[in-house]
């Protein structure tokens, strides 16, 4: 392991060669937005909200999976990046039915928070208005596909932290859906431990707990880095 030095938004920083731009940026107080990324889970670079510009490259790179290199010059907040991020958010809002006023996670939603932070006050692309099912068969939780953004946080936390692998993704493109087991109802799952980790890592209101009011839907994710480290130490 060696130390690499680089520049992020004009600031000289350094990190280990196995670290990502996202990790080094956050260690140095530089905030890069993300939806699929969550500390304690394997990064997948799915949402593309964390795209960055690297001097000498024309394409944008996802900060959560891009390893740092010696002498890199990184920009995380240019006008170009702001436009890309607003477009991504608009596409996410248009693909499903994210109606904040009637969502159980209103005020506790990562998607809603990023939209406010990036000035997304309307959507300039056509809404798809899909008719997505709601699975309320579980005794404690609800899955609302209308709110899902396919970040796969639930899939990864169930596999990597809980070890159950109840969740997965079925289908491709706009037909993709998160599923339990072999696409059966959540309430009939034989692998679900009802631990609620998937609910707490969900960035929207796709996974929620029954009987909770909007004010009670704050997510608790501080357990993730600790539990993952404990599992790695045990191995």
Could you explain how this protein is built, in words?
The protein has 235 residues and is α+β, with helices and mostly antiparallel strands. The protein has 2 domains: 3-77, Roll (Ubiquitin-like (UB roll)), CATH 3.10.20.740; 105-234, Alpha-Beta Plaits (2-Layer Sandwich), CATH 3.30.70. The protein contains 6 helices and 10 strands, in the order E-E-H-E-E-E-H-H-E-E-H-E-E-H-E-H. The strands form 3 sheets. A 5-stranded mixed sheet has the order 2-1-5-3-4, with helices on one face. It has a 3-stranded antiparallel sheet with strand order 6-7-10. The chain has a two-stranded antiparallel sheet with strand order 8-9. The model has no long low-confidence stretch (mean pLDDT 92).
Write the topology of this structure.
Layout: E1 3-8, E2 11-16, H1 21-27, E3 51-54, E4 61-62, E5 73-75, H2 79-95, H3 110-117, E6 134-135, E7 141-144, H4 153-162, E8 167-170, E9 177-180, H5 197-201, E10 207-209, H6 223-234
Parallel strand pairs: 1-5
Antiparallel strand pairs: 1-2, 3-4, 3-5, 6-7, 7-10, 8-9
Sequence stretches where pLDDT stays below 50 over 5 or more residues: none
Give the spatial strand order of the biggest sheet: 2-1-5-3-4
What form results from the Cα inertia axes?
Answer: globular
The CATH architecture designation of the largest domain is: 2-Layer Sandwich
Radius of gyration: 19 Å
Number of individual domains: 2
How far do the termini sit from each other?
Answer: 21 Å
Main beta sheet, described? Answer: 5 strands, mixed
Any idea of the CATH class of the largest domain? Alpha Beta
Bin the helical content.
25-40%
Task: Please write the string of helix (H) and strand (E) elements.
Answer: EEHEEEHHEEHEEHEH
Percent of residues in β-strands: 15-25%
Mean pLDDT score:
92
CATH topology of the largest domain: Alpha-Beta Plaits
State the secondary-structure class: alpha+beta
- How many H/I helical runs? 6
């Amino acid at each position: 392991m060696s130390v690499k030095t680089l520049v992020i938004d004009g600031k000289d920083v350094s990190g280990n060669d196995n670290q990502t731009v996202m990790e080094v940026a956050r260690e140095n107080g530089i905030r890069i937005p993300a939806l699929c990324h969550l500390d304690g889970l394997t990064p997948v670079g799915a949402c593309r909200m964390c795209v960055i510009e690297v001097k000498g490259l024309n394409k944008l790179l996802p900060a959560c999976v891009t390893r740092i290199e010696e002498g890199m010059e990184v920009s995380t907040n240019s006008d170009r990046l702001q436009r890309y991020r607003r477009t991504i958010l608009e596409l996410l809002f248009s693909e499903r039915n994210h109606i904040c006023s009637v969502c159980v996670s209103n005020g506790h939603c990562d998607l809603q928070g990023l939209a406010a932070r990036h000035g997304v006050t309307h959507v300039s692309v056509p809404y798809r208005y899909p008719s997505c099912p709601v699975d309320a068969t579980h005794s404690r939780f609800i899955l609302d596909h209308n709110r899902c953004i396919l970040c796969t946080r639930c899939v990864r936390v169930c596999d990597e932290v809980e070890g159950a692998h109840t969740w997965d993704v079925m289908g491709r493109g706009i037909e993709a859906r998160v599923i339990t087991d072999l696409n059966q109802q959540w309430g009939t799952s034989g692998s679900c431990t009802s631990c609620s980790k998937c609910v707490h890592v969900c960035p929207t209101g796709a996974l929620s707990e029954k009987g909770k009011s909007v004010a009670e839907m704050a997510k608790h994710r501080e357990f993730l880095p600790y539990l993952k480290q404990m599992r790695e130490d045990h191995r």
